[in-house]
Records
---
Amino acid sequence: QAKEQGRNTVHYYSLTLNQSCMSRLKLAGLLQNALENNELTLYYQPKVCLKTGNVKGVESLIRWFNPELGQVSPADFIPLAEDIGLIDSIGSWVLESSVKQSKAWQDQQLNLSIAVNVSARQFQRGEVAAKVVGLLEQYRLSPDHLSIELTETSFMHNAEKTLSAIKQLSLIGINVAIDDFGTGYSSLNYVRTMPLSQLKVDLSFIKNIVESVRDRKLVQAIIDMAHALDIEVIAEGVETCEQLKLLLEMGCDQAQGYLFCQPIPAGQFEKWLQDVSQAHISLISHCQLDG
Ligand code: C2E
Ligand code: MG
Ligand code: MG
Ligand code: MG
């Protein structure tokens, strides 16, 4: 799978389409205990502002290290967690851990907002907004230090509930982004109905913008549409200087990708922020000049 490429550090346990039911069952069994066995952790990937080179926010991305399986990709286990009813407990853990981390960074005078992935399935019980409000109060975190990325990893059975939760979150000042924009089940309908702050253009659209005029025009159209509606655009999966140069020309607002930084643990990220992030201001101008 394309998403798996470019990761050089860990060997991934990967599910194939013809996986046996046994392996799924086994994975489900191991996932049941992952939380209490402390096998889950969050990694962070910066979102780089293309106008200033600054990092205003990071995305939290869940990681599962199992002693038997090694590292399992969230692309494999999040859909499974949704299917077997574990997404609520895992999702709550992700939310609370992200809020805690965000608060810790505030206390260190690091002005970062953490974006949390929330799957459509999590909205079905209708408790996400209340949970977020409770966590912000508990950790005394202001809403601009947390944002939500709505992923469409599952078919939206209850769009109404999702919409009302998104509206509540937006009212209390939480920014909402649509993730993987363009690949989803009803992307334009989201744009039409939801109070969105950001669109994240799926990396599959970014992948070929250098070679494909068609893809480039499509991304430009997404950017123009979003800007007309006062929505910011983030490009996902930016890996090369050539891609960055084009995105700068197109007026894209932010970028995320291996070109800047892979998802890494919080401590490593703090170090990256100190050591490397200044280099991105020059990286951006370098790409602008001769990407
Ligand atoms: P996503 O939210 O769209 O996250 C972006 C994915 O692209 C991440 O994969 C990230 O590691 C990867 N990525 C970042 N930069 C690059 C790049 O330059 N090139 C390439 N090829 N890939 C890049 P990851 O971490 O494996 O996560 C996969 C998906 O799993 C996420 O896609 C998200 O939908 C889901 N996910 C991850 N963490 C959570 C979570 O805490 N909760 C929920 N509900 N879903 C999550
Ligand atoms: Mg995301
Ligand atoms: Mg995405
Ligand atoms: Mg994705």
---
Amino acid sequence: MAFEGLTSKLQETFKKLRGKGKLTEKDVKDAMREVKLALLEADVNYKVVKDFINSVSERAVGEEVMESLTPAQQVIKIVNEELIKLMGSTESKLKPANNPPTVIMLVGLQGAGKTTMAAKLALHLKKHNKKPLLVAADVYRPAAIKQLQILGNQIDVPVFSLGDKVNPVDIAKAGIENAKKLERDYVIIDTAGRLHIDEELMQELKNIKSEVKPNEILLVVDAMTGQDAVNVAEHFNSNLDLTGVILTKLDGDTRGGAAISVKAVTNTPIKFVGTGEKLNDFEVFHPDRMASRILG
Ligand code: GDP
């Protein structure tokens, strides 16, 4: 699972602190230096780390800690609280449309796990008694449409497709009409990705956005790519004004940086995470649970 390196380093620091009893300002400073290094090694954005350490330090040398009977415990509590704040404080829910269907557009680079996530999200909604429709609007990647149809079949969710010769904007629009006809209350549009960000891709996504006015535009990014994931998020956000980010491959050997930095850098909340290749490997993102996982 992700965060192993970060978690063990933080635990080491906290263990040292606990061994000290009463803490001096120097003890706190030394601990903060170690936390800072651990976060940087976990590939957390430098500015995010700096701001985080400043916020924690400010509180940790205050009376909350210094006059406490369990100062080390107080420092850990502050780190935990600031980490939760950094990742968005509370769960960020999908915003349903006033008039169904709620339209969710999934965007991202190729290989991030977008198509898999479309099916995971559909399954999640289905478990919550919603009726999703998947729309295959990735007309460029060979087999993307077929892949979505196979996944839809597995979870018994209909997949709307017009093949790969039709403009994605028209596919998206027709998909929404189809959802209305079938009385589906969520539409999940799987859009095309590219290996790298390019203007053509961005323009196509903008066109879909302006034509279908989705309720949610969620960027799927690969957590294993660390700060790169955050850069990708910044770029997509500046073009599309994202409503959320989905981190995939959090089961892999990621260092955790993306989970910690994305919200702070892009001011866009993480809404869901993917934790494996199977369709059940999906979680709603809870900043407090993620913080507990990171702190171990
Ligand atoms: P797309 O090009 O963005 O649509 O990506 P795909 O959905 O085809 O996924 C690319 C690869 O990543 C596939 O082999 C998926 O099985 C794999 N994958 C997707 N999500 C996860 C995840 O959360 N964890 C792991 N380990 N693999 C994933």
